[in-house]
Amino acid sequence: MRKGRSAGTLAWQAMICIAVLSIWQWGYDLHARLPWLVPDLLDPYFVSKPSEIFERFLILSCIKSKVGAFNGWMNGDFAKCLARNDNNLWIATAITLKNTFFGFVIGVSTGFAAGLILGRSNRLSAIFQPFITAVNSIPRIALAPIIVLAFGIGDTSKVVTSWIVVVFLVFFNTFEGARSIDEGFVNVARLLGASEWQITRTVVVPSTMAWVFASLSPAISFALIGVIVGEFIGAEHGIGRLIIESEARAEASGMMVAVIVLMLVGVVLSALIWRLQTYLLRWQQHHMME
Length: 290
Fold this sequence. Notes:
There is one protein chain. It is built from 13 helices and no strands. The longest helix has about 40 residues, at about 195-235. It has about 290 residues and is mostly helical.
């Protein structure tokens, strides 16, 4: 029955994708005759068409040349295209992914450590609460120009922007998880002679993992958003710079290629986080069922 439901779900998803792509490709052709039915948003000037986006993808990824001919791998045309275009789609995606990874890892680790420490200490949480609330009230994206100004247009500013977006998201989840631990478990561990480090390692950390993982899926998306915003403001490479360059040339197809690549990257990263969560929290009932 589960296989039947999965096949039915995949069939519906495939039909929805085909319908959306068909409307996107040919829907605007009906605008002149049925303007009340077809919205102006489907104008190819703004969102291009799937066929044009795919063609632009082949050019940006150096699979095709600008004149439409396929670049050969054996004759070196592909390598020459990569060398000629220092911000091609492959390099841009790799650099954006690298900065996203570092921003995500640093943000998760620092947010987890700070949330754990303040969550287990009433005195420290009382001291730092007004400062944390004040900093958290600032829209983190608004700090991106200051970060770029301070750290330059290199990769460091993108990692810092990604970190500052992620750290508070993970911190608050970890803080609430640490505060919600049943003190009975802690007292039992103390009665058994466990030290504070052993209590933290065997009771506190496992109890907060579900809270932490609940923040990881949005955190990876926010890490990617932070990097892209930093690349919008100033960057030498990256998908954000590809979008800005395409916008300057009024190339909707180039912008949509970058947006679709970002969407696919976000889906893959979220799926990896979900698989990691399912493995590490396999002792929970709903993960065991999966």
